[in-house]
Every structure is written in structure tokens, then in C-alpha cells.
Design brief:
The chain has 196 residues and is α+β, with helices and mostly antiparallel strands. It is built from six helices and eight strands, in the order ααβββαβββαββαα. The longest helix is centred in the first third of the chain and has 28 residues.
């Protein structure tokens, strides 16, 4: 009887150890995507209200954190310029009414990016991840092969019928210069940052 129980326990332990790969944690990219999806699911109504207000302005960027002044930006030839003499109180009123404690919106193509996170990919790319209301028709779907094949690029992944995760990435050349071995291998293979 003892041998049978010991044999069963050993078999159970061995099979559970062999299946440990199935219980790996999420990658940083997957964690960020999950966070974005959860945030859209949690407050889609509030973010949609903010975008509706932003659409009715001539401005190209807004950033606000509860207790701090609203930052308003306008696109210029040099990028997004901070405007110091502008107020848009209705956007803060909407954020407070919809329990949005902070936000950063940037006009992009026909819509607005909700700025979320950035991270370094395993392929030595600085990746910027956003939520975008709408679909980016000329932007491919995200997958690992796309990141592995392109030093710089863009992709999207659906959240729901109205929102997508939009990612934009650039080769992190400075990390190659600092001695990162993965980045150095990519640089040796001809990768360079967009516009270098």
C-alpha cells in the first residue's frame, strides 16, 4: 500500500513539475496590454466623454492629474507645444464627474490616443502603448513576429468594438551604445532607430 501511495505521489509531483511552463507569469507586454484593457473596460464612458470634449477644441494634447493644473498642447513644426495661457475647464469637470483621476490625450490621425505605458521589448525596442478609440485601417495587427522583424513600427490589437491597443516602437540604439548585448546584436544586424 505504501508503495502505491508513494508511486502515485511521485507521479503527481513529476507531472505537475513538467506542466509548470503552463503557469508562467505574463510578459511585461502582456501585463501592459491587460492593464489597458482593464482600464478601458473600467472607464470607457469617462474616457469617451473626455475625447468628445477634446474633439470640440482646436488643441492637440491634454494632460491632467487631480490637484494639478491642466496642460494643453498644440501641434507645431517642432512637436507639441505647451500653451500656458489656455484653460479648458469642461474637460476637468468631465474627468471629475466620471472618476478619471488623471489622463493624457494626444490627437492622432482621426482620433485620440489615451497615453498609458511604455516598456522595453525583448528585441531592444522602446515600445509606447496606448488605447485608441476607433480602428487604424493601415496599421497591422500586433504579434511577436512583427516586433522581431522590424526595428521600428506600429501595430494594433482589438480591445472591443470601439477601442484598440495601439503600439509604436523604436530601436533603442542608446542601449546598444551602453553595451546591452541584445541591442548590440540588433545594431550589428543593421537595426537603427527611425530617422537615424
Amino acid at each position: 500500500m505504501r508503495k502505491i501511495i508513494l508511486g502515485c505521489c511521485s507521479g503527481l509531483l513529476l507531472s505537475s513539475l513538467m506542466g509548470c511552463d503552463a503557469f508562467k507569469g505574463l510578459s511585461e507586454s502582456e501585463q501592459i496590454e491587460r492593464t489597458i484593457r482593464q482600464e478601458i473596460q473600467r472607464n470607457e464612458q469617462g474616457l469617451t466623454a473626455l475625447i468628445a470634449i477634446a474633439n470640440n477644441t482646436d488643441f492637440d494634447g491634454f494632460a491632467w492629474r487631480r490637484g494639478e493644473p491642466l496642460q494643453v498642447r498644440k501641434r507645431t513644426a517642432e512637436g507639441l507645444a505647451l500653451l500656458t495661457d489656455v484653460t479648458v475647464p469642461e474637460i476637468i469637470t468631465s474627468a471629475v464627474a466620471n472618476n478619471v483621476p488623471s489622463f493624457s490625450l494626444v490627437r492622432y490621425q482621426q482620433g485620440w490616443l489615451v497615453v498609458f505605458r511604455n516598456y522595453l521589448s525583448p528585441h531592444c525596442q522602446a515600445v509606447y502603448a496606448y488605447a485608441y478609440q476607433g480602428v487604424l485601417t493601415d496599421t497591422p495587427q500586433c504579434d511577436e513576429q512583427l516586433f522581431a522583424a522590424q526595428a521600428n513600427g506600429q501595430c494594433q490589437a482589438p480591445i472591443n468594438a470601439q477601442w484598440v491597443i495601439f503600439k509604436e516602437w523604436f530601436f533603442a540604439e542608446t542601449l546598444a551604445d551602453e553595451g546591452n548585448p541584445v541591442c548590440q546584436q540588433k545594431a550589428a544586424a543593421g537595426w537603427e532607430a527611425k530617422g537615424s
